[in-house]
Structure formats: structure tokens, C-alpha cells
Amino acid sequence: MKTTTAILAAFSTSASAFVPSTPAFQRQTLSLDAVSLANGAMSFDRVCREWRCKFEGDKSDSESLEAISKVVDEYLPEIKKVSNDATVNRLVCGGCLDFKLMTTVPLEDFGPWEEKEFAPEADFLAKLKKIEGVTMIETQTITNMEI
């Protein structure tokens, strides 16, 4: 939490973030606590926790990807309870065999989720580690704004 808090604090001392300076975009509705980046060129008020891994096999009949899907189905209801405004996106690249699950929450919900160690992250990742053919299991915190 200290690392993310420090990063968010650093962001908040700079200018706007993830908000293009075009007049049409100035109509967007950001929370009053939006964090600014890039000298005001962008801002963000949503933060994403990404869980990712590599799978083996062809995307159309990969046993490891099928097993990942079952883990997602098992944890999806719990993941969506992280925030009333959580969005969950699944990304699969059949070319490089990437699987990503991205959960994005409003900035004000991110800190409390981080304090809970992004639950159910540890359990979800532990299940991925048990799947044959799944490698390079990683996490990342990033901003994720719809523009």
C-alpha cells in the first residue's frame, strides 16, 4: 500500500492526467479527486489491478486457457464485489498466448481494496499456479480510463 500511496501522491502533485486538452473532452465528468498527469494533459480517477499470465496451446483448444476460464468463473462474483462501480475485462491474445484479467475501480475504492491485498488476488493467482501450462504469472497496478 505504501508504494501505491506514494505513487498516487506523486501523481497528485503533478498536473492533469489522462485528459486530452481538447475542448470536446473537457466535458467529461471526473471525480473531484481526479489525479492529474503529464502537466495537465491527462488525469485519472479510476485504477486497475491487472492479473496476467501466459498459457500454452492453441487458443481454440488450449487446455490451460480452458482451466484459466474456470478459475475466472469461480472468482468473478467475488471480484465484482470489490466495488459497486468495478469493471472487469478479460483479454486473450492467441498470438503471444497472453491472458489478462483487468479489474478497474474508482480511485476512492482502490485504497480500501489495496489494504485487503486486492482480495481475492492471492487465491486466484494460487489457482493459476496449479494449472499445467500456465507461466509468468504477474500483477500490475495501472490507470484505466475510458476516453
Summarize the structure.
The protein is an alpha+beta fold and 147 residues long.
Q: Would you give an account of this structure?
A:
The chain is an alpha+beta fold. The protein folds into two domains: 1-44, no CATH class; 46-147, Alpha-Beta Plaits (2-Layer Sandwich), CATH 3.30.70. The chain has four helices and six strands, in the order αβββαββααβ. The strands form two sheets. Strands 4-5-3-6 form a four-stranded antiparallel sheet. Strands 1-2 form a two-stranded antiparallel sheet. It is globular. The relative contact order is 0.22. Residues 1-30 have low confidence and may be disordered. Keywords: Signal. Residues 1-17 form the signal peptide.
